[in-house]
Amino acid sequence: MTDNPSSLQRALIDLAHTGDFDLLTFEHRNVLTNEITDRSKNAYFQAWQQDRSSIPIKTCNHVADVALSNLETGDDPLLAITDSGCFEPHTPYYEAREIAQAMIAAEIPPYPDTPSVTAAQVECLQETLTEMLCDKLYEQDTSSAKDIFSSFDRAEIVFLLAPPGHALDATISSTRPWFDYRGLTVCDNLVHALAALGYTVSAYRAHSGNRNSSSPEWSKSRLKRPSFTRPSQPLCTLEQLKEMIENSCSQHFLICLYAIVPVSQIFGLDLSKPITFSDASIATYNPFSGTFHDAARIQNVTVPPKMGRLISPHRWYAPEDICGLVQRYYHGELSQHGIDAERYRGDRIAA
Q1: Which candidate, 94, 104, 92, places its Cα nearest to that of 32?
Q2: How far apart are the two ends of the chain, measured CA to CA in Å?
Q3: How would you label 168-201 residue by residue, b for 16+ Cβ within 10 Å and e otherwise?
Q4: Residues 128-174: pLDDT tens digits?
Q5: What is the dihedral of CA 59, 65, 68, 73, to 10 degrees?
Q6: Which residue has the higher pLDDT, 219 or 302?
Q7: CA angle in degrees (0–180, nearest 5) for 137-141-145
Q8: What is the pTM of this model?
Q9: How many whole angstroms separate alpha carbon 117 and alpha carbon 114?
Q10: CA distance 120 to 126
Q11: How far apart are CA 124 and CA 131, in angstroms?
Q12: How does DSSP assign 211-229, residue by residue?
C-alpha cells in the first residue's frame, strides 16, 4: 500500500474515467506504477512450472527433437520449446485479477458511495489494472521452459553410428533378402559403423566369413577411412554384433547407441563436442520400418561428433513403441564435463 492513499485513490479514479494509462498525468502514472510494482513483488507467479504428474515419454521425445534441431542450427532450444506448442505457459490472469480487486476495494468504496465513479467504470478499471499487473508479473518472472521438467521426465535418445547426412542414406544393407551377418554390403556406411564399435572391415570379414566385394556407394574410389580414431576397446563383441544383425528383422538398418535420459540434460549440450553416456545400449535400428534389437550394454562411453549424430526418434518409429521396453533398464545420463574435443581420441572410458 502506498504511503499516500489519497494520491492512489485519485489516480485510480482518473484511470477509471479515462480508461487509458497513457492519458493520466505524470504524477498519477508514477503513483500507479509504483503501486503495481510493489504489489507484484509480493505475488507468486511462474509461467513455467512442473505439474504433479510426470510428462509422457512421447511428449519428451517431441521436446528432445525440437531441442536437438535448434541446437544443430545454433538457436536457443528453450525458446523453441516455448514456441513448439508442446506446452502452454501458465497465465498470471487470476493472480493479477485478485491484486486488482484488492487495490480497488482498499481505495474506492462500492458505487454509489463514490458517485464520481460508476459501477461500469469500476469494472473497466479492474480489467485495465489486471492487464497491467499481468504485464508486470510476466516481466518479473524468471522461470523458463526448462523448469517444467524434473529428473523423472525422460526422452529416448539415439546416437547413430553413421556418416553425416540423412539417416536413410546411412543404412547398412544385406546383399541377401534377409538380415544376414555374413552377407552385409561392404560400403562406407559399414566401415564407419564398424570403426565406431572398434573394429575394422578385416576383423568383420574374418569373423563373419563375408567375401563380398567392397562397393563404395557414392564413388568408384576406395572405401573412405573414418574421420575419427577407433575406440581402443571395442564397445561390444563381434558375437554380440552378429546377434544384433541377425535379429534386426530388416534387410536395412543402422547401428546406434540408445538410452532414455532426463530431457533437461539435452538443453545444455554442445553438439560440436563429444558427449558421454553414463549407460547406453548398442542396437540395430531401422526407424523407418520400425525394428530394434539391442544385445550389449556399456557404461561411460564417450562419442565425438564425427562418430555420428544424436537424434530423437520422435519423427519415426521409437524403440519404446516398437518393443514395449522396460524403460528403467535403459535409463542413462548425458554429460560433457571436462571433455576437450581437440584432445579426444575416441577411447572408451573404462566402466
Answers
A1: 104
A2: 62
A3: eebbbbbeeeebbbbbbbbbbbbbbbbbbbbbeb
A4: 999 999 999 999 998 888 888 888 999 999 999 998 878 778 899 88
A5: -130
A6: 302
A7: 130
A8: 0.81
A9: 6
A10: 10
A11: 11
A12: -PPB--SS-SSPPPPPSSP
Residue 281: DSSP 8-state: E
Place of cell 532426463: 262
Question: Mind listing the pLDDT tens digit for each residue in 43-66?
Answer: 889 888 887 678 999 999 999 999
What's the rounded Cα separation, in Å, for the pair 242 and 80? 41
Per-residue b or e along 299-336, where b marks 16 or more CB atoms closer than 10 Å to that residue's CB: eebbbbbbbbbbbbbbebbbbbbbeebeeeebebebbb
| Cell numbers at 38, concatenated | 510493489
Average pLDDT for the chain: 86
C-alpha cell at 267: 538443453
Which three cell numbers, joined as nine digits, stand for 125? 478499471
Q: State the pLDDT at residue 194.
A: 96
Mean pLDDT of 16-28: 90
> Does residue 222 have a pLDDT over 80?
no
- DSSP for 91-145, please give it: P-HHHHHHHHHHHHHHHSPPTTSSTTS-HHHHHHHHHHHHHHHHHHHHHH----G
Hey, which bits of the chain come out as E strands?
154-160, 172-173, 252-262, 275-286, 291-303, 309-311, 334-335
Three cell numbers written together for 198 = 572398434
Q: What is the DSSP letter of 238?
A: H
pLDDT digits (tens, 9 = 90+) for 88-129: 888 999 999 999 999 999 888 775 566 678 888 989 999 999
Enter the C-alpha cell of residue 230: 577407433
- Closest listed residue to residue 128, CA positions, set 17, 21, 1: 21
> What does the alpha-carbon distance between residue 241 and residue 236 come to, in Å, rounded to a whole number?
7
Q: Note the pLDDT tens digit of each residue in 305-316.
A: 999 999 999 999
pLDDT value for 350: 32
